[in-house]
Design goal:
Blueprint: H1 2-10, H2 31-39
């Protein structure tokens, strides 16, 4: 499952798309949500 999430989050930032420099910078990505919840699981 984690492999699939990483692929989905990384896809806009690699290859032919190259829409953002980092996954959290891509406007339509949920990567930022997962990073914030993982770093601060309590009190989000």
């Amino acid at each position: 499952m984690l492999q699939k999430l990483n692929y989905i989050h990384d896809n806009p930032c690699k290859g032919k798309w190259n829409l953002a420099a980092a996954t959290v910078d891509y406007e339509h990505s949920s990567a930022k949500f997962y990073i914030v919840v993982h770093m601060h699981p309590i009190g989000y």
